[in-house]
C-alpha cells in the first residue's frame, strides 16, 4: 500500500460524529459551498451508502463508488469499483481526487491519503457513524480557520487542514 495524492474531505462533530440514519446531522451552507469549490472538476470517491444518501449526481464531478457487489452498471460520471486500490487506479489522471466518505471508506482512506480537509463542527452530536481519530504522530495540522455562529449557521466550525508527516 502506498500513499497517493488523495485528499479526505469530511465534516465531523467534536466527538467525531459524521452522520445518523445515512444522513448528515447539520446544515452549514458555507461548508457545502467550500466542499463544492474544492471538489468540482475532480473525482469523488465514496462508499455505496454515501452515494445512496445523495438525491442525485453532483455536477462537474466523476463519482467513484466503492462496493463489494459485482456487475454494477456504470453510467456517465459514475464508476463502480470493488476496492480503494481500484478507485485510485481509475483516478490516476486526476491530480487531486477526493475521498468524501462515509465512515467505512474514511477508515480505509486514512492509510492511502496525504491530506485531510476536516470541518470540525463545534458541537457534540448524537450519531451512528464516525470519522477515525487523527493521530498527531502521523499528521501535521497546517491550517485552522474559525467560523462563527450566524443566522445561517447554528454551530461554529473550524476548517482544519492536515498533511501527512514523512512516516
Ligand atoms: N459528515 C461528512 O462529511 C460525511 C461525508 C460522507 C458521508 N457521511 C455520512 O456517513 C454515513 C454513511 O457512512 P457508512 O460508513 O455507513 O457507509 P459508506 O462508507 O458510505 O459505505 C459503506 C459501503 O461501502 C462499501 N464498502 C465498504 N468497505 C468496502 C471494502 N473494503 N471493499 C469494497 N466495498 C466496501 C460497501 O458497499 P456495499 O454494501 O454496496 O457492498 C459498504 O456497505 C451517512 O450517515 C452519511 O450521511 C458524512
Structural class: alpha/beta
Distance between the termini: 13 Å
Main β-sheet description: 8 strands, mixed
H/E order of the elements?
A: EEHEHEEHEHEEEE
Using only C-alpha atoms, the radius of gyration works out to 15 Å
Mean pLDDT: 96
Please give a structural write-up.
- The protein is of the alpha/beta class.
- The chain has one domain (7-164): Dihydrofolate Reductase, subunit A (3-Layer(aba) Sandwich), CATH 3.40.430.10.
- It is built from 4 helices and 10 strands, in the order ββαβαββαβαββββ.
- It has helices spanning 29-39, 48-53, 84-90, 103-109; strands at 7-13, 17-19, 43-47, 62-66, 78-81, 98-99, 115-121, 129-130, 139-147, 157-164.
- An 8-stranded mixed sheet has the order 5-4-3-6-1-7-10-9. A two-stranded antiparallel sheet has the order 2-8.
- The radius of gyration is 15 Å and the shape is globular.
- Bound molecules: NADP nicotinamide-adenine-dinucleotide phosphate.
- NADP nicotinamide-adenine-dinucleotide phosphate binds next to strand 1, strand 2, strand 3, helix 2 and helix 4.
Q: Main traits of this protein?
A:
single chain; alpha/beta; Dihydrofolate Reductase, subunit A; two-stranded antiparallel sheet; 19% helix; binds NADP nicotinamide-adenine-dinucleotide phosphate
Give a brief description.
The protein has 167 residues and is of the alpha/beta class. The protein has helices at 29-39, 48-53, 84-90, 103-109, and strands at 7-13, 17-19, 43-47, 62-66, 78-81, 98-99, 115-121, 129-130, 139-147, 157-164. The model has no long low-confidence stretch (mean pLDDT 96).
Amino acid at each position: 500500500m502506498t500513499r497517493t495524492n488523495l485528499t479526505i474531505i469530511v465534516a465531523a462533530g467534536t466527538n467525531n460524529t459524521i452522520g445518523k440514519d445515512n444522513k448528515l446531522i447539520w446544515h452549514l451552507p458555507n461548508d457545502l459551498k467550500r466542499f463544492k469549490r474544492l471538489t468540482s472538476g475532480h473525482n469523488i470517491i465514496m462508499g455505496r451508502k454515501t452515494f445512496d444518501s445523495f438525491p442525485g449526481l453532483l455536477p462537474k464531478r466523476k463519482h467513484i463508488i466503492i462496493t463489494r457487489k459485482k456487475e454494477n452498471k456504470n453510467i456517465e460520471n459514475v464508476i463502480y469499483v470493488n476496492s480503494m486500490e481500484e478507485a485510485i487506479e481509475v483516478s490516476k489522471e486526476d491530480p487531486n481526487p477526493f475521498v468524501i466518505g462515509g465512515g467505512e471508506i474514511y477508515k480505509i482512506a486514512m492509510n492511502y491519503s496525504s491530506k485531510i480537509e476536516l470541518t470540525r463542527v463545534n458541537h457534540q452530536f448524537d450519531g451512528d457513524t464516525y470519522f477515525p481519530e487523527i493521530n498527531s504522530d502521523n499528521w501535521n495540522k497546517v491550517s485552522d480557520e474559525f467560523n462563527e455562529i450566524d443566522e445561517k449557521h447554528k454551530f461554529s466550525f473550524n476548517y482544519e487542514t492536515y498533511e501527512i508527516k514523512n512516516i
